[in-house]
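I had to read the description of the data format several times before I understood it. The format is easy to grasp once an entry is in front of the reader. For illustration, here is how one protein appears when written out as sequence plus structure tokens:
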Amino acid sequence: MKRRHFSQGIAAFAVALLGLQGLPAHAADEAPDAFIKRLSVEVLDAIKADKSLQTGDVSKIMTLVDAKIMPNVDFKRMTASAAGPAWRRATPEQQQRLQQEFKTLLVRTYAGALSQVSDQDIVMRPFRASPQDSEVVVRSEVRGGKGDPIQLDYRLEKTPGEGAGWKIYDLNVMGVWLVDTYRGQFAQEINAKGIDGLIAALAERNKANAQRKG
């Protein structure tokens, strides 16, 4: 049951990310909780009308990720955090390959879970932060459908310069932070076979996932 709820939470996160397109010009000044609420509501509505996303169309999700999602997520920080100290020892080529395989893994996870999104709604929890904070946690719940409410929290950072605004770099589903979960898995592989071994393991997992999805 908990695994099913985790998948539903990942799906809700994916749905939210898929809405990160065409953000208004004032997005850099938008409060982080308002940012999460807006995109969540907009995209949960959109997903219910998109049959290809509901069935986990990987090619369509991949296209959206590359074109719309990645500019709004600090994926480099996400991957570096999951890899731990080994990230700093990796070459630029290894870092790039690891980011790509990790992205593919997450996107295919989303694709498998998207079909579980049906009539859910997002309820925002109280938000506490000062205007000076550059890193915040936004807490929410996914309610509706079958089962208990799903805790869904976001870690965001405010980035300066061109494209300034809030970027997501971690997700908490039912008390488990996504980066922490993968950090433990990555550490085991790195300790056994090094960074190249981790990249190879992720590539093999992605290949198997692709074959299972036809």
In short: Residues 105 and 206 are 6 Å apart (CA to CA). The chain is about 55% helix and 15% strand. The beta strands are 121-124, 135-143, 150-159, 165-173, 176-177. Helices lie at 2-18, 32-47, 51-54, 58-69, 75-83, 86-89, 92-113, 178-212.
